Amino acid sequence: MDFLFALLLSFMPPFYRRTFVHKARTHLITASIASGFAEIVLVAILYARGFIEYIPKASIGPAASLEFLFSWQGLLLAFFFVDGAVRLLGALAGQSLGTIPLYVVAWIDEWCIRRGKKKAELPLVPDLVEPTDGDGLRIQSCRTRKNWDKWMTVMFEEKLYEIANAEIAAPPRPYVYLLRPKPDSKVIRGLHRYHPDEVFHLEDN
């Protein structure tokens, strides 16, 4: 049963396969070899049958094979022959490749997902920086800072700070960071030169 599932999964690109790949276990490479070989054989049979049926319709008898190759049916079958050959060679090399048309579908699907996430993001607005007790800072931002942890040193207006805490607040600036002056004894392991308008350039970095 696992092998039959692996046969189906072998046609899928990684984008669709990753959720179910554990069910295929160790059968995926073997299934890819089998499905790639089966695709080649099936396409070869369909190509031969199509060519035989095309011969009476050929404009130039001696060039019938060339005419059929460049017909829509011949090009389609040739494409899937190459698709099967690539998948078979990839599997023999230890890599399971999905069928090319599904890679196109996966690319469009990924693009739509990224676009949806982009639209769901909060609008870009400059950070709000406020002083706190003890010479610290409270920074409210519309974007998270993934590299701001306890090891990060933040420089703002030529002063050095460390991350004391992080909180979640209401939009439009839900990401709140509490900074305190960096102790002189603390070693700088990472330095972030901060500016309230840097959110407009974060995605370019």
Description:
There is one protein chain. Helix 1 packs across helix 4 and helix 4 packs antiparallel against helix 6. The two termini are 47 Å apart. This protein has two domains: 118 residues, no CATH class; 77 residues, no CATH class. The mean pLDDT is 89. The chain has seven helices and six strands. A hairpin with a 2-residue loop joins strand 3 and strand 4. The chain has 205 residues and is of the alpha+beta class. A six-stranded mixed beta sheet has the order 1-2-5-4-3-6, with no helix packed on it.
Features:
205 residues, alpha+beta, 2 domains, six-stranded mixed beta sheet, 6 strands, 44% helix, elongated
| Proportion in β-strands | 15-25%
Q: Note the overall shape.
A: elongated
Could you give the order of the helices and strands?
A: HHHHHHHEEEEEE
Structural class: alpha+beta
Mean pLDDT: 89
Distance between the termini: 47 Å
Specify the biggest β-sheet: 6 strands, mixed
**C-alpha-based Rg, rounded:** 29 Å
Oligomer kind: single chain
Topology:
Elements: H1 2-9, H2 14-17, H3 21-24, H4 28-54, H5 64-69, H6 72-92, H7 100-120, E1 128-132, E2 136-141, E3 152-156, E4 159-168, E5 175-181, E6 190-193
Parallel strand pairs: 3-6
Antiparallel strand pairs: 1-2, 2-5, 3-4, 4-5
Quickly describe the structure.
By secondary structure, the chain is of the alpha+beta class.
